[in-house]
Amino acid sequence: MTQESGAILVVGPVVNDFTDVVSLRYGGKRGKVFLVHDCGAALTQLDRVNPDVIILHESVPNAESFLAKVKGQRGRSLVSVIRVYPNGTP
Q1: How far, rounded to the nearest angstrom, does the alpha carbon of residue 7 sit from its chain's CA centroid?
Q2: What is the β-pairing status of strands 53-57 and 32-36?
Q3: Which helix (H) or strand (E) holds 35?
């Protein structure tokens, strides 16, 4: 079982209003927010950060395979994942 970290890992293509709101709302005393722009960097950060929540933007290349790797790891399968879809996606 992993220890709680109070961290959120955001995997998104750019810094935008959404990532700013997440950082302002949940960063600081409540925890830490880590923003990466690709799935390779996200996999590297996964062990360092030990996030409680992963926010994954679907437009990031290899998002689906990243999610499969995370959910396939013992001890990580229960990490909460919020998937964000680009505007206009059905």
Answers
A1: 9
A2: unpaired
A3: strand 32-36
- Structure-block tokens of residue 29: 């005393």
- State phi, psi for 51 to the nearest 5 degrees: -70, 150
pLDDT number for residue 24:
85
Dihedral sign for Cα 52, 56, 60, 61, please: positive
pLDDT of 10 strictly over 70: yes
Q: What is the pTM of this model?
A: 0.82
- Phi, psi (rounded to 5 degrees) for 60: -75, 130
- Rounded to whole angstroms, the Cα distance separating 57 from 71 reads 16
